[in-house]
């Protein structure tokens, strides 16, 4: 198992249209075709940047004799064709886009921490009664906001790490924020704040560290 998880991260708002088109031209044909189907510039940009980070991750790990084809799924994360022992996850929020590749199930989620008018009321759709009770004990608005996004991102990351079959029978509300399932620690959790964003990573097993790699997309051209 990998001893270090590298998480690739970039700011997509700083990308010019010219650079975006150059990144698009470097994508495999299947990804080019899907990118051009997005009607909004924002979604197209997020997709192109996410797939560019994925390609960079594949090259960085150097675990493949030839880069595997990326299979696009209609409503779930892409998969690597013919590769059963590598897993990937992509997330984006506002201008930040991140991607992670690992040799065991993994999920990443990043969220921009906007102000929440009534965090307790809005927490019921993804928190358990115990988690809501813990939120209610917090005094300051900032502490409530931090806990809200910490739990939300962690549960989203765990959900993304599940197999499609497990996702079909799972809701965020029932997912364990602690990563403990049936009394056993199934998921290891890494989370951090990046300016006004919260990022959570869920993965199986133990690693020495999680390393964030800020990617300058212009340097890839």
From TrEMBL:
Pfam families: ACPS. The keyword Transferase applies. The lineage of its organism: Bacteria, Pseudomonadati, Pseudomonadota, Gammaproteobacteria, Oceanospirillales. This is 4'-phosphopantetheinyl transferase superfamily protein. GO terms for cellular component: cytosol. Keywords: Transferase. GO terms for biological process: lysine biosynthetic process via aminoadipic acid. InterPro entries: 4-PPantetheinyl_Trfase_dom (IPR008278), 4-PPantetheinyl_Trfase_dom_sf (IPR037143), P-Pant_transferase_sf (IPR050559). Residues 105-175 form the 4'-phosphopantetheinyl transferase domain. Belongs to the P-Pant transferase superfamily. Gsp/Sfp/HetI/AcpT family. GO terms for molecular function: holo-[acyl-carrier-protein] synthase activity; magnesium ion binding. It comes from Marinomonas transparens.
């Amino acid at each position: 198992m990998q001893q270090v998880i590298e998480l690739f991260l970039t700011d997509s708002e700083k990308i010019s249209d010219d650079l975006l088109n150059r990144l698009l031209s470097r994508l495999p044909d299947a990804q080019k075709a899907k990118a051009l189907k997005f009607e909004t510039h924002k979604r197209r940009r997020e997709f192109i940047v996410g797939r560019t980070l994925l390609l960079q991750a594949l090259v960085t790990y150097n675990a493949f004799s030839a880069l595997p084809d990326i299979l696009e799924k209609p409503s779930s994360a892409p998969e690597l064709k013919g590769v059963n022992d590598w897993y990937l996850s992509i997330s984006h929020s506002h201008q930040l886009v991140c991607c992670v590749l690992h040799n065991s199930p993994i999920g990443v989620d990043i969220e921009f921490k906007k102000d929440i008018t009534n965090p307790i009321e809005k927490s019921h759709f993804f928190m358990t009664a115990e988690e809501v009770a813990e939120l209610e004990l917090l005094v300051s608005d900032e502490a409530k906001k931090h806990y809200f996004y910490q739990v939300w991102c962690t549960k989203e990351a765990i959900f993304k790490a599940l197999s499609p079959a497990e996702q079909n029978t799972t809701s965020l509300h029932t997912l364990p924020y602690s990563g403990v399932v049936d009394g056993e620690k199934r998921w290891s959790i890494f989370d951090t704040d990046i300016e006004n964003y919260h990022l959570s990573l869920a993965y199986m097993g133990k690693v020495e560290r999680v390393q964030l790699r800020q990617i300058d997309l212009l340097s890839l051209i």
